[in-house]
Design a protein that fits this description.
The chain has 356 residues and is an alpha/beta fold. The protein has 14 helices and 13 strands. A hairpin with a 3-residue loop joins β12 and β13. α1 packs antiparallel against α11. The structure holds pyridoxal-5'-phosphate (PLP).
Amino acid sequence: MSKGAWPVVSGCPVAERIIDLRSDTVTRPSPGMRRVMAEAEVGDDVLGDDPTVKALERRMAGLLGKEAALFVPSGTMSNALACVCQTSPGDEIILDRNCHIFNYEAAAASAIGGVQLFPLDGYGGLLPIDQLPSVVRPVNVHHPRTAMITAENTHNRAGGRIYPFDELEAISSFARERNLRFHIDGARLANASAATGITLDRYGALADSFTFCFSKGLGAPVGSIFISDEETVTKARFWRKRLGGGMRQAGILAAACMYALDHNLERLTEDHERADRLGRVVGSNRRLDLGFPVETNIVILEAADGLLDIERFRLDLEAEGILTLTFGGRFMRLVAHLDISDGDIDRFEQVLSRIL
Ligand SMILES: Cc1ncc(COP(=O)(O)O)c(C=O)c1O
């Protein structure tokens, strides 16, 4: 890549190569992926004519052992469809306070579906299962109706934490007993599956619906999928259109997602190994602490003594060509992905020991 094509780094000297650790969404489609996109068979997907989109939907429904799936532009839209299509206005959804749906989706469920979100404080992104019986509302004219529970696997704000399978099973049985829907935001379910060896269909059996993203660790430029039973997916198709998410020759994008499934699923463990290395580099610096154990491709760190100005630290890294994200005023996030190499981690290590 020519130097002129590098991102502008807020007036700081541009380093040899930008190391972008902000997110696994920053990857660019590889030449192989671009080739299949260019050659994709397409049709008008809103009219139900795009063979590549249909093939992707069938493949994903099959992988999770579900009846149907719907290709959507983003994980945010898929989660919104999950909330809107499995509740009625005025219902309540139980979720954990740190989840993506509650924090980073512009209150879509409330704004679009008219539902109330009931956040619980769990540790590290996990729902406090023992509290569930007491927070499901009794049927009473005063209360909203509890309609759904959601869980996030892996958990973004909890440093890519894998939801323990037995806890998902417990939530799943509880939801079934109480006649509640259970949605899993599996934007990074592929990472959980790669790390645990638990196949996607075993996860699929636990919940009524799933969000799954191709544009994160799997490296596609665009695309997520909503997976559920036939009836819910039919509703979701209506809502996707209503929200302006119906895409026409979307097979170009679906082809990239197919390519991602074929080439980038199994290599996710490489990202996990690199994140583990990043975590060890962070953990061995006396001024930094790991926010959570590193289980997949995300590393969250914070100042060990509370004295390090995390925003200043981010700018110092940026001046060295290393991009990171800060949040909550105390935390920094580093994410390993397709475009991060072992050499990049070496350089991160050198820069860290120099600036801290
Ligand atoms: C756990 C989780 N769910 C949903 C999303 C939303 O995905 P999108 O950015 O495609 O809307 C993200 C995005 O990072 C995420 O981390």
